[in-house]
């Protein structure tokens, strides 16, 4: 079965996110005053083959722990959908 | 003669400077390509600066899985000295040979300028040519040099005296202060055993009078002299 895994990698809350701050300032300057905080992360889409949704998610989790996210500085979220 | 393996990744760009600085200090320095599986009898492994694999994903994240890094891991585990400079430091953190990580500079700028640092540990394979507390001015050239680690790790580093190099804090006369927002003004750390050291500044760019400063030469005279006396038995 084919699955698409959406991985969202975000800077760990509590750590300074200068990119997010800079984007937040730019949005304020453009008049989007309702913006309170902005954080900038990374989205990674994986097309994978797996026997089941659970297997696809388990493998993607291993990929995140090994390579896609840095456990010191980042958290990640996974979403799996059938292709 | 001390054998120094300068590891080249696709995107390394301080490899030649590092090799020349090591050779100038009297070492037998040679390149090892990232596809190679051993360090060819190196006493010292040196991971130079640059942008390995284009800094894709995160600085150092992909270089970590190069075949040569397994040889570096073995060398480090056997007590062999390993020095990572700039991108080399980032790779050592990604490889978990050093704790913590290096994030985007607090002011988002790529910084290329001399900074004032203090050598806090003068008993490592790479710093024993300095006196503890020596003040050195070294060039930095990085966009992602802000050292971060968990509070527990920071406490451990401080308690064990594993901050090797620290930016002179703001307010120090004549110094501009921490350039990138590094926690605790950290510019370089070592592992618990003291044989693996990572630093963000570039001593190889200040190791020859022709570049205007020799403040960084001590890193290379250190590694050459240290291995000559203590390096036997640590060949990988």
Description:
Chain A has one domain: Phosphoribosylformylglycinamidine synthase subunit PurS (Mth169, Chain: A). Chain A is 34% helix and 33% strand. Chain A has helices spanning 18-29, 53-68; strands at residues 2-11, 42-49, 74-82. The model of chain A has no long low-confidence stretch (mean pLDDT 95). The longest helix of chain B is centred in the C-terminal third of the chain and has 14 residues, at 217-230. Chain B has a single domain, classed as Rossmann fold (3-Layer(aba) Sandwich). With 236 residues, chain B is α/β, with parallel strands linked by helices. The model of chain B is unreliable at 231-236 (pLDDT under 50). In chain B, the strands form 2 sheets. In chain B, strands 2-1-3-4-11-10-9-6-7 form a 9-stranded mixed beta sheet, sandwiched between helices. Chain B has a two-stranded antiparallel ribbon with strand order 5-8. In chain B, strand 1, helix 1 (15-24) and strand 2 form a beta-alpha-beta unit. The interface between A and B is medium-sized, with 11 and 21 residues.
What are the SSEs and their pairings?
The complex is a heterodimer of chains A (83) and B (236).
Chain A: E1 2-11, H1 18-29, E2 42-49, H2 53-68, E3 74-82
Antiparallel strand pairs in A: 1-2, 1-3
Chain B: E1 3-8, H1 15-24, E2 28-33, E3 44-47, H2 67-77, E4 82-85, H3 87-94, E5 101-103, E6 111-119, E7 134-142, E8 146-148, H4 151-159, E9 163-167, E10 186-190, E11 196-199, H5 217-230
Parallel strand pairs in B: 1-2, 1-3, 3-4, 4-11
Antiparallel strand pairs in B: 5-8, 6-7, 6-9, 9-10, 10-11
Keywords:
heterodimer; A: 83 residues; alpha+beta; Mth169, Chain: A; 2 helices; 3 strands; 33% strand; elongated; B: 236 residues; alpha/beta; Rossmann fold; 11 strands; globular
Query: In DSSP terms, counting alpha (H) and pi (I) runs of 4 or more, how many helices of chain B?
Result: 5
Uncertain regions of chain A: pLDDT < 50 for 5+ in a row?
Answer: none
Number of helices of chain A: 2
H-E string of chain B: EHEEHEHEEEEHEEEH
Proportion of residues in β-strands of chain A: 25-35%
Biggest interface and its residues per chain? A-B, 11 and 21 residues
Please state the structural category of chain A.
alpha+beta
Helical content of chain B stands at 10-25%
Number of domains of chain B: 1
Class of chain A in CATH? Alpha Beta
Percent of residues in β-strands of chain B:
15-25%
Q: Tell me, briefly, the overall form of chain A.
A: elongated
- Low-confidence stretches of chain B are 231-236
Using only C-alpha atoms, the radius of gyration of chain B works out to 16 Å
**For the record, what is the CATH homologous superfamily label of chain B?**
Class I glutamine amidotransferase (GATase) domain
Biggest sheet strand order of chain B reads 2-1-3-4-11-10-9-6-7
Structural class of chain B: alpha/beta
